[in-house]
Design a protein that fits this description.
By secondary structure, this protein is of the alpha+beta class. It contains eight helices and seven strands.
Length: 347
């Protein structure tokens, strides 16, 4: 039985009770000798008995319908709010509510909504923290594995390549046979070993990239290039200014430089490498230029993860990334990042 029917039934029963009380009071006050005369007495052209019984019933039914519809609408509003709360939708409000009980219920619903929102916020925060912890843990495992692999490659393959290179140099210097074909083949083997050494050093640089670890970017770049100068048969020149920048920008520029040098060592077959890091016209400019073999930039952009990674790093700090390469003439990479002064990042 719904709300309207219950209210109608209640009103009708109440009307019957009122009718009995009124009729009893009337008959006690004005006793009749002949009960049949009740059908003869008329009120507004209706028998008195019919009026005294029918009028309260009709009035009770009308009151029951109105009252039932009123409370049904109120309860429907409460049900709608609770349903919206369950579904996570924006909760609608009662407009100009004056009934104290309904206002109290709405207040409790608002408190419940606030509590649910806090629970959801807490759950999302915990989920984010767990995700970050998993990613950090996975990243640490990857870094440890890459360091292990780099150490093994350095201790085994790199040392063997170095030994093979020394042996080939000694063989070429001591070969007095005069056989030109053999000399060419030995020189080619020595060149291949040298190229393998370059690629191995580039791979080690990629597997175990040097971190700044509290150094400025100038100190980190100069240390990296000085170390490469001792290990790589290549002319390396640099011009690094002491530029103040955020640690995030320093880290991204340093990673881009490492990726660029790794690509040069592995693919460029260059004899010279120039690195520039300066600040001009409120821009931090990093430029890496080699005189290697060059490549097709458009073709490489669609297939090279390294180029995409460098571009994304530049965009992440609000910079621009440009690379120009001409086959047979070399490659020029340039990154420009706005040089924000202290206080500008907080505006």
């Amino acid at each position: 039985m719904n709300m309207v029917m219950r209210q109608i039934l209640s009103a009708v029963l109440f009307s019957i009770l009122i009718t009995i009380i009124i009729a009893g009071t009337t008959f006690l006050a004005f006793p009749l000798k002949e009960w049949e005369r009740l059908w003869e007495v008329e009120v507004f052209d209706f028998p008195y008995l019919m009026v005294i019984v029918g009028a309260p019933l009709i009035i009770g039914m009308i009151i029951g319908v109105v009252y039932g519809w009123f409370w049904r609408r109120k309860l429907h509003g409460i049900d709608r709010q609770l349903n919206e709360l369950v579904k996570g939708q924006k909760r609608s409000k009662f407009e100009n509510e004056t009934i104290q009980e309904i206002t109290a219920i709405e207040k409790h619903i608002s408190q419940l909504e606030e509590k649910i929102n806090k629970q959801v916020e807490l759950s999302q925060r915990l989920a984010t923290e767990r995700t970050n912890e998993r990613e950090q843990s996975l990243q640490e495992v990857v870094i440890q594995e890459r360091n292990r692999l780099a150490r093994e490659l350095h201790d085994s393959v790199s040392q063997q390549l170095f030994a093979a290179s020394m042996m080939m140099s000694a063989i070429n210097e001591g070969d007095n046979s005069g056989n030109i074909a053999i000399k060419k083949q030995l020189a080619m083997v020595e060149k291949m070993i040298h190229q393998s050494q370059l690629e191995m050093r580039a791979l080690l640089l990629h597997l175990r990239p040097v971190a700044l670890k509290g150094k400025s970017i100038r100190e980190g770049v100069e240390e990296l290039l000085a170390e490469l100068t001792q290990k790589v048969p290549m002319t390396i020149e640099w011009n690094i200014e002491d530029i103040k920048m955020d640690k995030g920008v320093e880290d991204q520029l340093f990673r881009i430089l490492q990726e660029s040098i790794s690509n040069t060592l592995r693919h460029a077959k260059a004899d010279r490498l120039d690195v520039l890091l300066i600040e001009r016209d409120e821009l931090i400019i990093m430029r890496v230029v080699d005189d290697g073999t060059g490549f097709d930039v458009e073709q490489a952009k669609s297939s090279s993860y390294g180029l995409q990674n460098m571009q994304e790093r530049a965009y992440e700090v609000g910079g621009t990334f440009k690379i120009v390469s001409i086959e047979g003439q070399g490659t020029r990479l340039e990154v420009k990042v706005p040089a924000l002064k202290e206080g500008e990042t907080n505006d």
